Amino acid sequence: MSADKSPEKKGSSPGASAGDAQEPEGPESTVPAQREDLGDVIAVRRGMFGARNGTDTSGYGGLVRTVRLPGGSSRPYGSYFDEVADELEGALEEQDVEPESVIEKTVVDRDELTFHIAREHLVRVCQTLRDDPALRFEYCTGVSAVHFPGDTGRELRAVYHLRSLTHNRIIRLEVSAPDADPHIPSVVSVYPTNDWHEREAYDFFGLIFDGHPALTRIMMPDDWQGFPQRKDYPLGGIPVEYKGAQIPAPDQRRSYS
């Protein structure tokens, strides 16, 4: 890498002298983004593991915890987040697309910027984030999934972590789909390394990535029934292949309460 292309140090600018005070760019140095809402309560869990059927076996049966997803944030977001949001919205407008129809919600939580994207626009957003010179998120570290059975109509989520090597920035994309229609567009055409990650999310959560070149199971046998990392998947009580043994379901195990 030539000297004129090497990344600048945080807080420095070309031609700045040692005595020039530069404003730090890190999220910790800025005013936190304000919440527009307190988020959605999607569940109330009881006990250590939130068992819904049978007796709690953790010894923490009296523990009650509210599960709340972070709400939307309002500007200023802080750090480089405002610049990324402005550039993304501007790039979408240049494509004659209304940003409000693409970005459902913007969340700043735990020093992370997350764009909640309407699933039909996911590939367009990824292409824009990768190719726009002011954004240049060239690298996607993969897609993970999560299942919130209590979040009706948005039970399944796919989460993408994007990194800009050019600008040394990190953001997240989140896309939701209902249990009844678990389809999300594949982004393998934009980020080819997501090939195996999308297969894993399909295998464990049942998310169907439309347009994937070979969407098959990657860990479980091809004829396996169900998706093991969904929260409504049975814990135990499933015959163990090759051994003939069986793990009892939680409500059939020894109780400590």
From TrEMBL:
EC number: 7.1.1.-
Positions of the UniProt region annotated as Disordered: 1-38
Keyword terms, alphabetized: Cell membrane, Membrane, NAD, Oxidoreductase, Quinone, Translocase, Transport
Membrane listed as a keyword: yes
Known catalytic reactions: a quinone + NADH + 5 H(+)(in) = a quinol + NAD(+) + 4 H(+)(out)
Membrane topology: Peripheral membrane protein
Biased composition (Basic and acidic residues): 1-11
Cellular localisation: Cell membrane
Keyword presence, NAD: yes
Residue stretches making up the NADH:ubiquinone oxidoreductase 30kDa subunit domain: 116-237
GO cellular component entries: plasma membrane
Entry-linked Gene3D superfamilies: NADH:ubiquinone oxidoreductase, 30kDa subunit
MF terms in GO: NADH dehydrogenase (quinone) (non-electrogenic) activity; NADH dehydrogenase (ubiquinone) activity; quinone binding
InterPro entries per the UniProt record, alphabetical: NADH_DH_suC, NADH_quin_OxRdtase_su_C/D-like, NADH_UbQ_OxRdtase_30kDa_su
PANTHER family noted in UniProt: NADH DEHYDROGENASE [UBIQUINONE] IRON-SULFUR PROTEIN 3, MITOCHONDRIAL, NADH DEHYDROGENASE UBIQUINONE IRON-SULFUR PROTEIN 3
Entry function: NDH-1 shuttles electrons from NADH, via FMN and iron-sulfur (Fe-S) centers, to quinones in the respiratory chain. The immediate electron acceptor for the enzyme in this species is believed to be a menaquinone. Couples the redox reaction to proton translocation (for every two electrons transferred, four hydrogen ions are translocated across the cytoplasmic membrane), and thus conserves the redox energy in a proton gradient.
Subunit structure: NDH-1 is composed of 14 different subunits. Subunits NuoB, C, D, E, F, and G constitute the peripheral sector of the complex.
Record family assignment: Belongs to the complex I 30 kDa subunit family.
Annotated protein name in UniProt: NADH-quinone oxidoreductase subunit C
Gene (name only): nuoC
